[in-house]
Amino acid sequence: MSSIAPPVGQGGGAAWRTRDILVTAVIGAAFGVFMAALNAVYAGLGAGAGSPWLLVYLGWLLPAVLAPVIVRKPGAGLFAELVAASVSVLVVSQWGPDALVSGFLQGIGAEAVFAAFRYRRFGLPVVALAGAASAALAFVHDTVLYYQGVAPELLALTFLFMVVSAAVLMPLVAFAIVRGLREAGVLRGFPG
Amino acid sequence: MRGAVVERGAVVEPGAVVARGLGFTHAGSAEAALRDVDLEVAPGECLLVLGPSGSGKSTFVLALAELLGRDVAGRLDGTLEVGGPVGVVFQDSGTQLVMERVEDDVAFGLENRAWTRGEMQARVPQVLAEAGLDGLGRERTATLSGGQQQRLALAGALAPRPRLLVLDEPTANLDVDGARAFVDRLAALHAAGTTIVLIEHRVELAWRLADRVLVLGRDGRPVDLGPPAHVVRRSGRALLDAGVWLPADVDAALGVASRAARPPAVIGEPLAVGHGIGFGYRRRVPVVRDVDVSVAAGDRLTIVGPNGSGKSTLGRLLVGLLRPDAGTVRLMGDAPHRLRSDQLARRAAYLFQDPEQQFLATTVAAEAGLGLRDDELARLPELMDALALPLGRFGARSPYALSGGEQRRLSLAGILARSPRLLVLDEPTFGQDRATYQGLLAILGARLDDGVGLVAITHDERLVADLGGRSAVMSGGRLVGGTMAGAPTTGGTAATGGSATGGSATGGAA
Amino acid sequence: MILLPELDARQLTSPLGRASPLTKLAVGFAWLAALVATTDPRQTLVILGAGIAGAIGLGRVPVRRFLRAWLPFVAAAAGIAAVNTILGAANRDPAARELLGLGPLRITEPALAVGVVLGLRILAIAGIGIAFAQTTEATTLADALVQQARLPDRFAYGALAAYQAVPRLSLDLGTLVQARRVRGMGRGWSPRLLLALLVLALRHADRMALAMDARGFAATGRTRYRIVRWSAVDAAVALGGLLVLAATVALR
Fold first, then answer.
1. pLDDT (tens digit per residue) in B298-309
2. Which residues are B34's β-sheet partners?
3. Hey, of B81, B398, B403, B406, which one would you mutate to test binding to chain A, going by the most A CBs within 10 A of its CB?
C-alpha cells in the first residue's frame, strides 16, 4: 500500500479534505462562541436597540458566506451555519430545534446562490447576492415565527432594509475578514 | 525527480524508517524547511531529534506520519519509507482529543481503521490501563488534568498497535511531575520494542532514553546523527552554536559557563503590593487564597508551583485583569482593575504564555505598534532592532508565521514599547531553544538594570535559578514556600515546587 | 467563559435521554410547525405545557436548572410581545377596539392578543429547546445522524471535534480581550477581536485536522464503537408527541 504525496495540496475540486471539514466546522463554532459572548454583552439592550441589533443579525449570517469563500466546496455555507446553530442549541441552550431551522434556512439561501454559479464564482456580486438571499430567508423565518402580528407595510420595509444591508455589508465584512486571514497566513493551501 | 513516494511495509521492516534525501518546502515559502535527510531507523530504536527553533524538526515528524503534502501544503523531495502503522502525539492535547468521553477518544483511531466492535471493546480498557487511566473510560476528556490528557493522547496513538511512535514535544504543556511520568511511559514502550522518534526540549528527561540523536540545523539540514556520546564528541561546538539544549553534565563536559550569580540588584520603591488576596472564577471555588505579595523596582520574584496552583491567576490579579474577591491589590498606588486601559499599559505589562493568544494584528509592524503614542512609535524601530526583529525585514510578515522564538520577542516588543514599570510574565521561556532563552534573559536583565520590577510565573527551574531574586511556591491557591512579600533579597536560593530534575549549577564563575 | 454542558445521569437515563435525538428533533419540529400555524393562545399553551412537562417529567431535568435556562427567554418573550403589540397590523384597523392611544401610536385589543400569543410561543419554543438540550449529548447526536439518518461520518465527527473546541475558543476570546486591555486598547469589544479569534480558530482547525488524519480519519469504511438503535422509548416519545398535536388540533 503506497500513497503519493501530491506536489502541492491546494484543495481544488469538489472533494472535501479533513482540513476543509474542520475549518468549516470551526468557523461555525467560532461564530457560535463569538455571538454568544456578544449576546451576553448586549443582553441588557433588548430587541430593537439600534446598531448592535443589526450587527448581531448579520453576524449570524456571516458563516454562510465566509465558509464558502474560503473553502470553496459545495455545502460549506450550510455546514457552517448548522454547526453554529448546533453550538447555540447544545451549549447555550438557545432556541432549540428552531435554531437549527434558522441555521438551515440561512445556510441554504447562500448555498443556492453559490450553487447557481456552479461554485466557481466567489467574487463581490456573488457574495452580495448570497448574503441577500441568506438575509431574506432569515427574515422570512423570523417573521413567520416571531413577528406574525406586525403590520405588513412595516415588515415589507424592514425586509427591504435587511436585504439591502446584507447585500452591502456582508461582502464588505467577509472580504475584510478574508484579507485579514490571508495576511495572517492561515489561508495557505486554500484556493483563492 | 520531483514528488515523493511513501511506502508502507513493502520494502521496509515494521517499525523501521528509511529516508533518502528527504526534504520539504512549505507552500508559499521560498526556502525548504527540511532538506537532505538521510537516515535509517532500526525497529525498536529510540531516536531523539534536536535542533533550534525553525530547524524543521516538526516537519520531519509530520513526514513520518505521512501527513505532508496532504494536510500540509508544500513540496516533498526525496524518498521516505516507513514500516507499519505510525502513532503520533503532538504537544497540545487539546487539539488531539476529539471526543467527549475518554473511551470514545481511544476508540476513535480504531474505528477509523475498521476494527470490529468486539476487538475495540477488548482493546480500549487494555490501552487505558497501560496508560494509567484505569477506570476513567466514561469520564469526560475536558475534566482530565493536563498530564492525564497527554496520556490519553498517547493511549489513542497506541491503541492500533503501531510499530512506530512519533512525538512532537509531548511534555511541553506538562509540569515537572507530569513530564517525568510521561517519559517513564515512553521508556517502558521502548523496552517493549516500539520504535520511537521523539522531539523534546526537556533534554534532561529524554537524553537517557535515546539510542541515537539526530541534530538538525537552522537551515533544516542534518548537522549530525549518532549515539548521544558520539554526537557530543564530534559536534559539541556546533550544537552549542545552534542553540540546542543539552543536559547539564554534557554542558559541563563542553565547558559551558555555569551560571554566574547576578550582581546585586538595586531595589527601589514598591511597585505592586497585595494583601490577603482571594479570588475564584466561580463562587465558592477559590483559586487564590489569602496571598500577600510585594514587588519593587529592580526586584525579581519567581512564582512556581504545579498546574492549577493559582499562579497565573495571581499574576493577572496583579495587573488588574481580574478583580480580587477579597483583599487588596495596589499597582503604584491604584487598584489596577480600576485603571483605564492606556494608564494600565504604561504601568504594568502582562505576557501570556502563548504569544499567539495575544496577537491582535495581522502584520508584525501593526502588532508591535498597536496603540502606541507618537513618541513611543518613534522609538519602536530601535526597540525592534534590539529584539532582533528589524522592521525592515519583519514588518510585513504575519506574526503567526514567525518561529516560536520570534513570536516571543514580538510579544515582548508590544509590551516593552510603552516602558512599563512592572513586568509580569507567564511561562516566558515556554518551548524555547537555548539561543532564544539566552536572548530573553539578556533583554530582561537590561530592563531589570533600568529599574523595572519583574514577576515570572514559571515551571522552568533553569529560569528561576538564572533570574535569582526571590522565589515563592504556590499550591492550591496558597503560598506554601519561599517569600512572596517582605524584604526583597538579592541572589538567594530557589525553592521549587516539584523535585528538581537536576541541572542546577553548583555556582562558581566560568 | 463557555463550558460544554454536563448532563447528569438522571437526565441521560430518563426516557427522553434514552430516546434517539432524531425522534426528539422530529417531535420538536412537529410542535414548532403547530405553534407557527396558530395564533390561538390555548393551542400555544398546550404545547408550552407539554414542553415543560416533557423536560421536567420525561427528561428529569431539575426544576431549578430548567427555570435558569428559561429565564433569559422571558425577557425575549416580553420584547417580542411588545413589538407585535405596538407595531401590530390590527392597530391600523379602525374597527378594532382601542386600548391605548398616544398621538400617532395606537394599541388595540387584537394586536395585544396576538402579541401575547407570540410571547407565549417564544416560551414554548424555549421549553422545547431546553427539553432537547438537557437530554441530548453531542456525541449521541452525531452517532444518531450517522447511523440513523445516514449522514457522512466525516462531517458529523468533524463537527463533533469542532464542538469540543468551543471551551478552548471561548478561553481564547477571553485572553484576547485581556490582551487588548493590558496593551492599552480599551475594555470594549472590537471587530479586531473577531478576526483574531478566527485566526486562532483556523490554526486550531489545522492542527485538529492533522491530528485526526494522523489517526486515520481520512479513510473510508469506519466501524462503530457505539451503537444507536431505535427502541420502544422512541415509539413512546413519538406517540406522546402525536397525542399533544392531536390535542391542539382538537382545540380548534
1. 889 999 988 778
2. B24
3. B398
